[in-house]
Specification:
This protein has ten helices and 36 strands. The strands form eight sheets. Strands 1, 2, 4, 5, 8, 10, 12, 13 and 14 form a nine-stranded mixed beta sheet that branches. Strands 26-27-25-24-30-34-33-32 form an eight-stranded mixed beta sheet. Strands 21-20-19-22-23 form a five-stranded antiparallel beta sheet, covered by helices on one side.
Amino acid sequence: MGQTTLDELKMTVYDKDSTAAAVVLYEHANVYLDPEFDYKTRTDYYYRIKILDKAAFDFADVEIHLYKEKKAIDVKAITYNLSENGGLSKNTINKDQIFKVKDSENWSSTKFTMPNLKEGSVIEYSYSVISPYLGIDDWYFQSSIPKIKSEIDAAVLGNYKYNVRLVGFLQLDKDDPSIKKKCLYIDGIGEGACVIYSYGINNIPAFKEEDYMLSKKNYISRLSFDLKTYTSTRGVVEEYTTTWKQADKQLKDIFLNNQTSKKSFFRKNIPENILNTEDQLTKAKDIYSFIKNHFTWNQKFWNSADEKIKKAFDKKSGSAGEINLSLYNSLKAADIDANLVILSTRDNGIPTKLFPVIFDFNYVIVQVVINGTEYFLDATNKYLPFGQIPSRCINGQARLINSKKENNWITLKPKIETSKKMNAIFSLNDEGNFEGSLLIRRQGYEALNQREKINTLTENAYLESFETDYSDAEVDDYKVKKLNQLEQPIEEVFDLKIISGNDLSNKIRINPFFFDRIKENPFKLKERNYPVDFAYARSNSFNLSLSFPENYKVVQIPESKAFALPENGGVFTIKSIIKEKSVVIYLRFNIKKEIFNPYDYEYLKIFFDKVIKSESSDIVLELKS
């Protein structure tokens, strides 16, 4: 503590990122076994942060999150400001300003707020965490603000073996491992040598999140310490990171909690007429519908060792794990070839394949094979058709736990194409408004999301929502078709009036892209070092026929054009046609690839800019002379 300088206080902008509201001047973690605390793992943390703008005042509210028996000690905190005479003044936190809070059954936190905070302050604080648990927490080099220097040192006794992974796109500036003999003396055992891990990165840019990305855990630069083995003083080796064959067994034992052999229970609870169905595909679909409609999902993914599917079945409520394990057992009870698939959801991060880390996984679905065709099933959502999984599950590769063959990696992709097709017929009336009809046909994830929305709202509330989304529209009549035919596209028909705000004057200007017009580019970063992930390909079309009174003529229409992304990644086309009393517009907007690499980012920015410009084009009508 006490390293803050006058130059740091006089800094008004960070030269490498003029937009930064704050910058970490220096941070460090030091990990070691502490004899004073019975050789538990101690981590000393130090942070020094320059506050450049009041938008960064949240960094003065410090929370140290502690799992179960972990505890925080030796908390120190100082706020530095420039004094009136140009010197350095400081305010130190008192012990009575440090609070300990019980957040939940397993978590607590130590909290404090830096005193006398101003724009231009430098805050400096340190603390130590004592942990009785094996393992080293991940060290995040990157955060939402830039950093000038970030370092970690860890002294690891020779009987601990770690796999150390650098995640993200930044390279280490400091990578200096060493061996320290006589690192630690333990009474009754003797001296032990340590591996000293020493890592650091300088001039770290802020990590900026943006639309269409997986969990930032996949990309934000950090060090991950995965405990491989621990050797006890008696020479017994306990393995934590094992072979995939061993890990698959642990997955079944730890996560599935012996809940994969409940066939007899479900055979008694599935309706007899379903079990007696001869056609395998029909039977599988009926079982899927039965489980899907029996349960209400409690929005939890996986309760790990707490999964109890009999109890969940009786309560008619459960986690995704309980529901899909019930589905698996039900299918097995009906003699259908079924396997479990363990995965990590999009918000949880991509599991590493370099070596097994079983706690990378947080979700389970079911695979069935019928007449040689593979289907993946998730029964958490009543509006999911057979063979479609939630988009949260589309996260690269998943682990197939095969009951007959060796387990292996598989890639999960949507089974149903996602599309939205809009057909509109409107005419310009004497009041300068448009009257007509709109047909919207959705399939894939568009249909799933729409069915959920319609079924969770009253019709009046849904139409109010529609008129909020399209503020110029007034709905006169509405019908929905195939709402509950989940394997069919859903269709909606609206009779509409669109209030244009135009008076019938000598010249009328109309933007014809009434629905789903893109007005803002989702890609704004100067550069993006992680992929753009749309999860699934999607296609959109909009066909419009716009008629107008006989005493008007067309003097301008949107320019017909077509442009595409490289490597067949996407396409946008507009075709405009003038007819005798109408203008017809055909629009196609397709994203054909699920994932775009960082080198495609500039192409995507340009592509969306051109879409926005194209959809800003107007139809112009003039009175005939």
